[in-house]
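Example record

One chain of 545 residues, shown exactly as stored in the release files.
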Amino acid sequence: MTFTGRIRIYLILIALVPPLLIMSVIYFRSVRQLESADQNTAAGALERSSRFMDAFGREFEDRVIDLGQSEFIKKAAVMIKSNRASRADITTGMTGFDFLEMIDSNGVVLASAHRPGLLGRPVHENNRIDSGLAETVEYDISGVHAALAYILPIDKNILMYTGRYLDEEFRNLAGGLMPGEVRLYFEDEEMPAVMGFGSMDKGRLYEKDGAYYFLMAGGGNSGFFLVHTLKFGGERPLVSSLLTATGLVALGAVVIAILLGMYITGRAKREIDNLITATARAARGDFTTPVMAYEEGEFSELADSISTMMANLKNLRRELAVTEKIAAWKTMGQKVAHEIKNPLTPIEISVDDLRRSYHEKLPDFDRTLEETTATIKNEIHRLIKLLNEFVDFARMSAPAIKDVRVNKLIESLEKLYQHDIESRRLTIHNEVGNKACRFDPEAIRQVLVNLIKNGLESGPETNVTVTITDNGEGIVFRVEDSGPGFGDKILAQNFQPYVSTKKDGSGLGLVICQRIVHDHGGRIEIYSRAEGGAGVLIELPRNDG
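Predicted structure tokens for this chain:
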């Protein structure tokens, strides 16, 4: 990732992380506080409900006792005891109650205020009714009702059975005193089984699916459940609003950070790209164009420093070129002088011998003449050969690169070195086959001939192996021999001119090879083989264009 890309990511993180932390704190703290408040509210509702039901029960019980002591109830009991139950009128006592019956100790109805269908039948078919307060399910002409009932003994074997329905009016009254909703469920309905109301105890608070429940009345064997339900969540929109507002702020901050980051990094990237282009140009050796920044500031100072550095490098390169040129001429002069001096010495000696034989009229003058003139001629040939090599090196032209079949190049080498191949002093492995490559065939042939010739001349028993391969990026020539290898001096003075191990060598052979390979854009290196012998590696680029 680029430097400007990282800056953009940092700016986005700086804009995004604080709002996210604030949103997290708001959410978790608000949820916890709301949950605690909900639980406290539900507990308060449970407490108020318990007090309400206790007060309601005490008031109901007092009114039942007052009713049981009334004259018309006592009169009704006398009428029942005298077997005139049909004349017992108890409808007057219905005020404040929803049902009123006179029953015997077995619960059989002897007189009823408004449920004549119960006469002669038990008040409850399956349940035994004990004296005192009870929660029951009652039936009348309007349907089924949850009720708070009371059985009060009036006389021997005569009891009063009365009560109040826990109807909608009662539920509205209870629900109006505390938050939440009061609902009535009968035991044979589906909801009590689903919600598990049968296992609820009065006075305990239950929580399920984010709502709180408690049992106001019923449960057990009563046949009904009067359940108070508190569902919260009214405060959640406030939390959602805070989160939404914070999220919008975060989103806006991110958008601003992105735009600001793109603006800042865009300007920085333009300056950096300008500097990269300038340094790349300098790396290619172009020191002619000064670096200019788009704006004043640090980049401008950096551009000025780079321009100064390029100017200094340009001057250093010019001075270095002059120094190298002087050194090269000095070296060449010394080498030429040395190479010319070597044959001049035997020429001078031969001339002296010849003159001395002539002036002293020596008897073997004829033999001396032949020997000295032969020596002088050989040394002159040596001088001519040396001068031709210098001239060839100086006249080398650019390579004429073209499509070449490697097989053709190898065939020309095999013809040239047929005798050495037959004597197994030279082995050529062409792993490229007839693949077409692009190079100057004459120049590369000259390189291979020079290297093979050096290898064969390194010793009378030396074997040379040439291997041609393709490394995917170009063609590779590897020339190795079994001779003495390169000495440390040769390896240290890698491709230095006029450095040779041969007695009459000019030291220009490897230098010429290096220049040819360099002109092809390739690479050449020399090395000594671990198993003995010298090796030269040449890599030529594919040059598909």
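Notes: The chain has a mean pLDDT of 84.
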